[in-house]
Amino acid sequence: MTLTRKPQFRQVLCSLLFLLEPLLCHCDSEGYSHFKRPIVQYFIMKQIRLSLLFILLSAVTVHAQSIKGKLVDLVDNKPLAGATLQLKLVRDTTQSRSSVTDSKGQFEFNGLSRDSFLLQVSFIGYENYKQYVSLNDSIPNADLGNVLVPKKTTEIGGVTVVSRTPPVQQKGDTAQYNASQFKVNPDATTEDLIKKMPGITVDKNGTVTAQGEQVKKVTIDGREFFGDDATAALRNLPSEIVDKIQVFDRLSDQAQFTGFDDGNSVKAINIVTKAGIKNGQFGRIYAGYGTDDRYSAGGNTSFFKGDRRISLVGNFNNIHQQNFASQDLLGVTSTGGGRGG
């Protein structure tokens, strides 16, 4: 094959070939080169094809665009590894490519055309993220840097938190019973109320036992009521005014005065009244009539004002019933008597 080129170019080519293989070709008097062997023609054509392929690949590489970035948490910038990404053409969303972030939260889409794309991100525990990206002559490659993805938040309706007071609380050496947690009849007395409290018993004679010991003293808001007669105090106090019942070991009067425990403490009950009762009055009356003209009636009323406690107690019947004895009235500031029939 004879190369139809200018004599100067042929002379240069002939010189190069001469360096590679002196026997491959020779130059005539007019400057044209002649190949002596067919393999030279094959060698030249192969080099031309490789050169064209290299140029073509370079052109494709120049015109291929990319989009890359890194997914991180919006708050602590922690990389989101294993997140799913989907890149769609805006003009044709049916054309899409998918990828997954690496251990560092990084991703990259290569071999893209100049166009507009929609990047979608999905990851467990995070909001679905979307971002539009455009590639053009001025921005052939887009580096999105850190893509901040917020965590998923769940909105719930209004929540009403109802706190329930425990029936019994232990505060130091005092057992405190919350009266609201024990249901009694509207006309019940405090004695009826404490019968429902665990650890407190009342026998048929009205003797009160708490934590295995007989209750010797009952106070209201820390002040004495009906002296040392716990039964009279509990029977003549309506349950509706009670907020809490406190059971504790009360020091003797001498120990309270000296400040030294003499070992003569007694089991006591302190009745904490509801707000507003410390200044007010309350009471109850009752009456009954039966066969053989038998009847029973009575009542009590109490006046509380500051540190003053005044109670009036009465009982009228003809069935030989006594609600209290003379010793029951010790400690009563003011009383009304009664008679038995």
Describe it for me?
There is one protein chain. The protein has 341 residues and is an alpha+beta fold. The protein folds into three domains: 57 residues, no CATH class; 85 residues, Immunoglobulins (Immunoglobulin-like); 173 residues, Ferric Hydroxamate Uptake Protein, Chain A, domain 1 (Beta Complex). A hairpin with a 6-residue loop joins strand 7 and strand 8. The protein is rod-shaped and about 140 Å long.
Helix percent reads: 10-25%
- Broad shape: rod-shaped
CATH topology of the largest domain: Ferric Hydroxamate Uptake Protein, Chain A, domain 1
What is the percentage of strand-forming residues? 35-45%
Ends apart, CA distance between termini: 154 Å
Biggest β-sheet strands, sense, barrel: 8 strands, mixed
Q: How many distinct helices?
A: 5
What structural class do helix, strand and pairing data support? alpha+beta
Number of domains: 3
Q: Look at the structure and give the CATH class of the largest domain.
A: Mainly Beta
What string gives the helices and strands in order?
A: HEEHEEEEEEEEEHEEEEHEHEEEEE
Question: If you average the pLDDT, what whole number results?
Answer: 75
Beta strands, count? 21
Identify low-pLDDT runs.
Answer: 1-7, 325-341
CATH architecture descriptor text of the largest domain: Beta Complex
| Rg (C-alpha, Å) | 52 Å
Topology:
Elements: H1 7-20, E1 25-27, E2 33-35, H2 38-63, E3 65-73, E4 84-89, E5 96-100, E6 106-112, E7 116-122, E8 129-134, E9 141-149, E10 168-171, E11 174-178, H3 190-194, E12 200-202, E13 208-210, E14 213-220, E15 223-224, H4 230-235, E16 242-250, H5 253-258, E17 266-273, E18 279-289, E19 295-305, E20 308-317, E21 339-340
Parallel strand pairs: 3-9, 14-17, 20-21
Antiparallel strand pairs: 1-2, 3-6, 4-5, 4-7, 7-8, 10-11, 11-16, 12-13, 13-14, 14-15, 16-17, 18-19, 19-20
